[in-house]
Design a protein that fits this description.
heterodimer, A: about 500 residues, mainly alpha, two-stranded antiparallel ribbon, globular, B: about 700 residues
Chain lengths: ~500, ~700
């Protein structure tokens, strides 16, 4: 279905442009007014994508009419289909609610700054950057053209860089720079691949919005000698973004030291987009070349799951632990994609959503603890908080259930789909392969369960720590948005067919 | 929806509703408790009506299904044949009875909202597990019970010392041997989820081969997928991976450790989840799938003998694992000091018996007999072990201690509890004519007929050990006077019988074990042949009878009575007590006792090797690899070397290029200039002279070039 007007483009453009006036309104509206306006801006794309997905379903792709066209660039449109829907819905959900959460959290952060005698830019700038970052992610996911994709990606990177630089923790300017350099190394390597494709193909489209079909095998127009190089460049660029083992080291710095609401967008929403791009872009353009790489990417993914889990176990800083957990979780996404089976890829996309819900809850929990316990992040100084903060503890438990796949959470479905995808690669393979795969999964999923529930225990259970004596439950300003996110995660467990059915149907065609 | 289908759906759905209600009505206090428990009662009634439908005609089968995730082929469906109907019936009633017990047992607990939420959530998941018509719903129920188990083991998550399991301060091989509730919950979840990974991988393999999750369809195509796997040498690895979840859930070696420490949960939870129901999920898995595997074996027998051998090897493996677990856990029950721990070891041991029977089933002439042996032991154990745990809860409540050392001499104070515990403990010991005797006899007979001699031997020895620790349990709690604690409580007149709401459930269960035992030769064959009458992939047993094999009785009964006799001697006679003291003083004998008490050091080995290994890897991997190598490479070496390179470049720039252009060149130019300047004296005649000299030189050069 092609919409009458490029509504999705408008829905993304309005918050990006609208965010620019937020700093000007700061004096007129005050912090709360700015927060409300920003949330409303973000609610536009969230409501539109959710409405389209719920009302029409995503069995059939829904696209904007082409709103920009140029020779040798191709056409810009926006596409909501089964593949992009799990991402768009999660981004809409998390960004809007974390925007609400930000209001209370940043009050605390500004107080901290004041105590330290610093004066960062105020509410207007914070929400301008936040809205721009969030809306640009939505634009990235809905894009149909490499140039469009790259432009939105850039628009998401710069505000997030500034958010870290202005409002982050620790050595924030240095870490912001580190984040900027790393993401640009990734983006530029990806851009090199994209340029090679575009210049040889004469178009940068990876999806034809008029015919509503992907540009399967467009990469054939790239000369044979360059083809593999192009695919590898595209993959490496995306791996940096996904923080796959070997190029993951930027993530713990950035996600741990970003202001917590921004961490709650970076981990749940931003990085996983790369897994989507692997399918939407790399596989579509180069189906054969990408398939020939998967025997290497699957072990790499499994190793990343294990490695991230091991590193998470070694952390004492709760936010750093969550950051390493994201490394591990991105391993699950890559594993699902690497199976190139309908179940595995669908599992990766559903796991994007499950991880978005889970990790948003967990970073938000970290934020609650920071706000309530005077900036405390060290897990070893926590313990026994559950009696004082039962709601926070329950929400954190729901968060951990989402990332470890325990019912009733959406994570159960993604875990099932990913393992199904992986197990279907064993048919026709040797016994050794089967045993090795089983061992890798046992260790990987075992570690995920261990770090998740060990952390739950260390923070919330056990005899009350010194921190627990003074602890008290946070207000609805922080917990309210978290409850909504948790409720959506559980609702999606009950009604997973919204995402899974269209995904499997379209992937069976796409993957042949 | 027909009536029978409604009963099936209500049976599992109502407890879930009860869970939600207990959250929603959390402000109502006691009323909420009664509402939560009464949904379990209604669920049990529903399961009864369902069982009646299944056992009386209608083809002995009730199915119902609605699409859930049609694209994935997942439907929310039930498949109630005579096996799952019987399982659901037993489980639902046990859940209700233990729910009633909880009303009083947990009456003053501040965390009752959480307790009832997870209690009811557990019941719904457990019933869904046994009634599921497809593997994914079974897995869903499976994981749901795991979550509830985790939450309830860690119910007292503030970890007060009184809630611990094990001896505070005791270490074995340097590993602490005490476990607070939050730690135990973590152990349970991690251990069982390891097995679940194998289960899920197996489900995935089956789905990719058959394109369905439906258990009946998988049963019907068992020959095909088994042949496919067998031809590639994958059948045995697949079967083992697929059964990993069952082994972990049912606490079979090497996954047994979690069940031991699960005793940190409230005793009602130990009775329900960690004795009567959830830990039987693995047994149910085998009851359900052993006939299917056997069907595959029949079909492979002639076409692909290697495949049939793989299935044979699988059943042998299950038999041996079960037999070893039965023996291994029974030895630990001999020396345990905590009342609940004796029962926990015993539970794992009895689960081993069930595994042994069900493994043997696949090796016997008549599969159905082995299956029924496993089933009858499941049933009898569920009844007597639930009663034992509930009684233990009442005793611990009464004496304010979990150690048997603080008990003894309670027979006169808690007469009904004593009677109930005596009957059920004798049933556990396998004393005729109680139910436990009949079912254990059939289990041992199955092992005998399987031809796995080692399993049979271990099974028989275990019978003797079981009799001993059951005797010890009864004597140490109800007789064997000498506990300061009991004397103290007696003096203050604080020892009294349990509250009727607590007493009634276990007293009823004790009556059940007695009545069932007394009538078993008459009703047993009828019950069992009904249970076997319509089981998926199981051909009806030609002739179900309760019979006694004189040879087996001759072997096992002397061991049982021997065990009881030794127990009596050790704890009821003065020379026996002197012997116990002597054992404690003898170094080699007390070493054996420590070995058993510290659980064969398996827990310590796990912590040293696996937990310690991963902790080491995590710590050092982070410190030396992630921080030093990777972080160091990107954020130190790379910037540093870039810096160095740029410094070298800068030196080159400065030293060579800059100086080349701006110093050497300049100085060269300046040198020339200076030389020139020297010549620039400002005197006209000098310039003129030079001009002419230059001109002369040019002319000269021109002349030379021309000529």
């Amino acid at each position: 279905m092609v919409l009458e007007q490029p509504y999705m483009f408008y829905a993304v453009l309005i918050p990006i442009l609208g965010s620019l006036i937020l700093p000007l309104l700061e004096d007129a509206l005050g912090g709360k007014g700015i927060a409300a306006l920003a949330t409303m801006l973000l609610a536009i794309p969230a409501a539109l994508t959710a409405h389209l997905a719920l009302a029409a379903g995503v069995d059939e792709p829904i696209a904007d009419p082409v709103f920009f066209q140029a020779d040798s660039i191709g056409s810009f449109s926006m596409l909501l289909d089964s593949l992009s829907a799990p991402l768009a819905i999660s981004i809409g959900l998390v960004t809007t609610l974390i925007s609400v959460y930000s209001w209370r959290y940043m009050q605390h952060r500004f107080e901290e700054f004041e105590a330290e005698g610093e004066t960062p830019p105020g509410w207007g700038v914070y929400y301008m950057l936040f809205v721009m970052f969030a809306a640009a992610m939505m634009g990235t996911v809905l894009s149909t053209n490499l140039v469009e994709f790259y432009l939105f990606l850039e628009v998401s990177l710069l505000p997030s860089f500034l958010l870290i630089a202005f409002y982050g923790y620790g050595n924030r300017e240095k870490i912001a720079l580190l984040y900027l350099i790393w993401t640009h190394v990734g983006a530029l390597v990806f851009l090199v691949g994209a340029l090679i494709v575009g210049l040889h193909a004469g178009t940068f489209d990876y999806y034809d919005p008029a015919a509503l079909t992907p540009m399967m095998g467009l990469g054939q127009l790239v000369p044979t000698s360059l083809r593999m190089l192009t695919v590898v460049a595209l993959c490496i660029g995306l791996f940096v973004k996904l923080a796959i083992f070997g190029v993951h080291i930027w993530l713990p710095y950035a996600h741990a030291e970003a202001p917590t609401p921004v961490s709650a967008l970076l981990s749940p929403n931003l990085i996983g987009i790369a897994a989507y791009a692997l399918v939407r872009i790399v596989y579509v353009l180069f189906p054969f070349e990408f398939a020939s790489l998967t025997p290497y990417t699957l072990p790499l993914a499994l190793f990343t799951i294990i490695y991230g889990g091991l590193m998470a176990l070694a952390q004492d800083d709760f936010k750093r632990l969550l950051a390493y957990s994201s490394v591990s979780q991105m391993g699950y996404l890559l594993a699902g994609v690497s199976t190139l089976t309908a179940a595995g890829v669908a599992g990766a996309m559903v796991h994007y959503a499950a991880h978005a819900v889970g990790k948003a809850l967990l970073f938000a929990t970290a934020g609650v603890l920071i706000a309530q316990l005077h900036g405390l992040r060290s897990i070893s100084k926590m313990g026994g908080l559950a009696p004082k903060m039962p709601i926070t503890a329950s929400l954190a438990l729901i968060g951990f259930m989402h990332i470890t796949g325990i019912p009733p959470s959406l994570g159960l479905w993604s875990e099932i789909l990913i393992v199904m995808g992986i197990s279907s690669t064993t048919t026709g393979r040797s016994t050794l392969y089967f045993v090795a795969l089983l061992a890798a999964l046992l260790i990987g999923i075992g570690l995920s369960t261990a770090y998740a529930f060990l952390t739950m225990k260390r923070i919330f259970f056990g005899q009350p720590s010194e921190a627990a004596e003074k602890a008290k439950e946070a207000g609805m300003g922080l917990l309210g948005p978290m409850m909504v996110i948790a409720a959506v995660g559980i609702a999606l467990f009950i009604w997973p067919r919204l995402l899974i059915d269209p995904l499997l149907a379209s992937l069976r065609i796409l993957l042949g | 929806m027909e009536f029978a289908q409604t009963t099936a759906v209500v049976a599992w759905a109502l407890p879930y509703l009860g869970a939600l209600l207990s959250l929603a009505l959390s402000k109502l206090g006691r009323v909420r408790d009664y509402i939560a428990a009464s949904t379990l009662g209604l669920s049990a009634i529903s399961a009864t009506l369902l069982a009646r439908e299944v056992f009386s005609g209608h083809g002995g089968l009730v199915t119902w299904s609605v699409d859930w995730v049609p694209g994935m082929g997942v439907s929310l469906g039930v498949y109630v044949d005579t096996l799952s109907g019987a399982m659901a019936l037993i489980i639902a009633w046990l859940c209700f009875l233990i729910g009633v017990y909880s009303l009083e047992y947990m009456a003053h607990d501040p965390g009752r909202t959480r307790y009832w939420f997870f209690f009811d959530f557990f019941v719904g998941s457990m019933l869904l597990l046994v009634m599921a018509d497809n593997l994914l719903i079974m897995f869903l129920g499976w994981e749901g019970t795991g979550l509830a188990s985790y939450a309830l083991i860690g119910h007292w998550y503030t970890d007060e010392q009184g809630r611990w399991v094990g001896d505070p301060g005791r270490t074995a091989l340097g590993v602490p041997m005490w476990f607070p509730p939050s730690h135990s919950g973590l152990r349970a979840l991690t251990f069982t989820r390891l097995g679940d990974v194998g289960f899920l991988l197996g489900i995935g393999v089956l789905y990719s081969l058959t394109g369905t999750f439906s258990i009946p369809e998988i049963a019907h195509s068992s020959g095909t997928w088994a042949a496919w796997l067998a031809a590639r040498g994958l059948l045995l690895p697949f079967l083992l991976a697929f059964s990993l979840g069952a082994m972990a859930k049912s606490a079979q070696f090497p996954f047994h450790e979690w069940l031991v420490t699960a005793m940190t949960g409230p005793t009602s939870v130990s009775a329900l989840i960690h004795a009567a129901t959830m830990v039987k999920a693995g047994v149910y898995f085998l009851l359900r799938f052993a006939p299917i595997f056997k069907l595959a074996e029949h079909q492979l027998m002639h076409t692909l003998p290697a495949g049939a051998e793989a299935i044979h090897a699988y059943f042998t493996f299950i038999t041996l694992i079960g037999a070893f677990t039965a023996f291994f856990m029974a030895t630990q029950a001999l020396v345990a000091r905590e009342l609940k721990l004796i029962l926990a070891f015993s539970t794992a041991s009895q689960l081993g018996y069930m595994f042994m029977a069900l493994g043997s089933a696949g090796l016997m002439e008549e599969l159905a007999n082995g299956i029924l042996a496993g089933f009858s032991h499941f049933m009898s154990h569920a009844i007597f072990k639930a009663a034992l745990f509930l009684g233990a809860g009442a005793i611990i409540h009464a004496v304010h201690s979990k150690y048997v050392d603080d008990m003894g001499g309670l027979a006169g104070h808690m007469r009904y509890t004593f009677a109930a515990m005596l009957v059920t403990a004798l049933s556990l010991a396998g004393v005729p004519p109680l139910m436990g005797f009949w079912s254990k006899d059939s289990v041992v007979e199955a092992a005998y007929e399987s031809g796995v001699g080692l399993a049979f031997a271990l099974g028989v020895v275990t019978a003797g050990l079981t009799a001993f620790y059951s005797t010890r349990l009864v004597l140490r709690t109800f007789f064997y006077e000498g506990s300061e604690n009991v004397r103290h409580l007696e003096a203050e007149h604080r020892l009294h019988e349990a509250h009727p709401l607590m007493l009634a459930p276990y007293f009823l269960l004790a009556v059940a074990t007695l009545l069932l035992g007394l009538t078993w030769p008459a009703v047993g064959p009828e019950i069992l042949s009904k249970v076997a009458s319509n089981v998926l992939a199981l051909e009806e047993a030609p002739h179900v009878e309760v019979h006694l094999n004189p040879f087996l009785l001759g072997v096992s009964l002397p061991l049982v009575f021997g065990g009881i006799g030794i127990g009596w001697f050790a704890y009821q006679t003065s020379s026996g007590r002197r012997l116990l003291v002597a054992i404690r003083q003898s170094e080699p004998l007390s070493a054996i006792q420590d070995f058993l008490y510290d659980r064969w050091y398996i827990n310590s080995i796990y912590y040293r090797v696996i937990v310690g290994g991963f902790a080491w890897l995590s710590r050092n991997g982070f410190r030396w690899f992630d921080s030093l190598v990777i972080d160091g490479f990107y954020h130190r070496l790379l910037p540093q070397s870039t810096w160095e390179a740029s410094a070298i470049g800068w030196r080159f720039e400065k030293g060579v290029v800059d100086r080349g252009y701006h110093e050497r060149l300049v100085s060269a130019v300046l040198g020339v200039g200076r030389t020139l300047r020297r010549s620039q004296t400002g005197l006209i005649n000098h310039y003129l002279l030079m001009f002419f000299a230059g001109l002369a030189a040019l002319i000269l050069a021109f002349l030379v070039w021309v000529v």
